[in-house]
Amino acid sequence: MDHAPLLAGTFLDDWATRLREGAERPVVGILLRGSHARRAATAHSDVDLDVLVADDDRPAPPTPGTTGRSTGTGRTPYAARQAYLVEVDGRLVHVSVAARDVRSWVDRLGEPADWAFGLPVTAPVRLLWAEEGWRPRIDLPVLCQPADQPRLEELVATLGKVAGARAAGDHLGVRLAAADLARLCPSVLRLANPSVRVESRRAAFAAALALPVAPPGYRDDMLLCLGLRPASTGQLGAAAARLVAGIVPLVRPYTDRVAEVAGPDLAAALADGRLDRYVAQLARAARRGGYGPQVPAPRAGQWVTVPVTDSSPSDADAGAVRASRLDPAIAARLRRTPDGLVAAVVRQHDTGEVLMVAWMDDEALHRTLTTGRATYWSRSRQEYWVKGATSGHHQYVRSVALDCDGDALLVSVDQVGAACHTGHRTCFFTELPVSGAGTQR
Questions:
Q1: CATH fold of the domain at 4-57+74-145
Q2: What is the dotted CATH code of the domain comprising 152-288?
Q3: Alpha-carbon distance 437 to 220, whole Å?
Q4: Which of 28, 94, 148, 241 could cross-link with 286 by S-S, CB 3.0 to 4.6 Å?
Q5: What is the pLDDT of residues 209-256, one digit of tens each?
Q6: Which residues take part in binding Mg(2+) (predicted)?
Q7: Is 185 annotated as ligand-binding?
């Protein structure tokens, strides 16, 4: 990319001299940041300059309760901003100058960047000038800032704000809270993901969407909540609920880290299922927009239904095949009940243990095949549900087989926790007496 209009010649040197000579306090260093330092600037990019000034070593103010005497030497943090429009080769260029005392600037490098979605930052920087005594401290090839803490408590609290806004009919409140919630998700998911560093806001956004360990539909739900795809407030509430309900079980193995940030009680609630129950309580309200009659919160190990926004139960008439994206070649082989359903027998993939029986329609089968998460149709609720979405007892699909008649499916899964709503590993835990057991013909 051609940077000649700005970086060629003496443009930056001239500005470094101008800022040193015009500063109110002694300058110890001047750095170029942003797109020009990354060599990613366009003709429309700002020129971002940091001016580091000497510390204020004036006596500290008297301590309250004293007779007015100073208790020692203090330091008053200093920060100021200036903006300039400069004509260069017949066009105007925006020069943005941020001035800060040097020690506060160094301290700030120990804080997370507010634009980085909670991810750690390694951003290129270029030193334009430095006072010799400070050069070893500030002549850095990159500016590094740490990742944010995993703010699980704030993530759950923000889902509560989404639910509250839905219940109050506050459409703007839903959108604002959903956007805040999405920005918090990557900081929590970092616990379960490989480390990644970013150098710009755009890179942070891309990395936040591409985290490999994330709930099903994570990227789409993030885009909805951030306002980058059109959605109703009902769809936003459902997306926010899916994000939080999906993240909680993924970070359960990291309760020690959660305890360090949010305290032992929240970590214990994460481990024993109370947090899942609380999130399920909020999720129902966020999806449905009110606190009317609700299904009781699930016990540990219980599965519950999870409504989805792209299929309306009112459109699912008995005996009809609901609209689906299932491969027509597969759909043609199914022999459905009058309700449009096929029985799904679920087993543990490596042991063959039969875990449960549920029902799938065409769309539930499509989602199971394409997301890798077992998805079923609830006959009683007339809605889709994803096993483990609220309980954390997920079923990760390894294979699906169709029987010879096309009226049953064998779903082989990796079962996390209990498959049965009673808390048992399998739904088939009640042995019946067989009088002819052990006899031979």
A1: Beta Polymerase; domain 2 (3.30.460)
A2: 1.20.120.330
A3: 53
A4: 241
A5: 999 999 989 999 999 999 998 888 889 999 999 999 999 999 999 999
A6: 403, 405, 407
A7: no
